[in-house]
# Entry
Amino acid sequence: MIPQVDFMEKVRRIGNIPAFIEDAVIVAEETEGEEKENPHPNFIESNTSGITLEELENGCIVPSFGDNQLTISHQHFIHRVEDAARSCFPLENFGDTEIRVSHKILGRVPGALNKRKEELLPEDETVYYQRMAFCFHIRSMRRMMNGQEVHLCIGGVRSLNEENLYRGKSPEKFKIFIGWRVRVCSNLMLTCDGLIGRLEVMSEAEIYESALRLFTEFNPERNLELLGNLRNTLISQEQFCQIIGRLRLYQVLPPARLRELPRVILGDSNINAATRGYIENPNFGLCGRENISCWDLMQLLNEAVKQSYIDKFLERNQNCTDFAIGIQKALSGEDTQNYSWFLG
# Structure
């Protein structure tokens, strides 16, 4: 039995978001059948593949530590986060859970250790996935933001490569998030108050408690207003080119100089993808316009980091949001963290 956390008074207030935010309106809820006929893009790409919860439960083993104690399974992690979300938003309507996995690990049952590969039977083989990411959205918490439909999204990431399975059981590492997602491209827009980037727990109950605390303390309307305001600051082509050039230069700066600048964890492939999107992306690129906005910049970067490995995805996604907000402050003269350097 998962213990309840006494957050419910605040939960009731969070569950109903007031529609006072400028340029944000409630979108009529779609039916379940409509969503299945028009599937949205994946929230992460890279080398991941889709998998169902039933496949995780019935087709994959659960790895154990060196002392034979089982790790917390991917599916139990998903269930506990879902439980916390339903406790926090009891009156809302939830969408299906999308699960992506990578780094397939093949093994054998103990009785087949001495068999040659060609002698292995299906029942001799085992499989699990080292890395897993999942998310689901709350259907009834939907808005129009800067011309795009967005909805509140919840999910998490598990990377068993961060665990030392050869020793005895120790705290296991997870990541949990809540934030808004753009439906047309499934770009997540994560801020620091919607992400637990390193959760170390010994039990499923601790996952539930931590997730419930994150969801309860998250302020959706303030978050939405912060993101929506990015639309009000424009970036010229010259400024965009300056930003891209400085992002490339940033990667080769000496450590002493890097410590003076905001942290950016985007790689060459992410910067290349964002540059290509600036020209080609039909939703956030130029497409006949003279300028893009800081909102568009955030979306181009978010789209680019969807090619990251599962274990790096959330941190890079949040970093993109921070970067777009920082550029907005630099353009408006409010920069106190030296984002102005990226504008030359």
Summary: The chain has two domains: 8-14+23-219, 233-343. Residues 310-331 form the longest helix (22 residues).
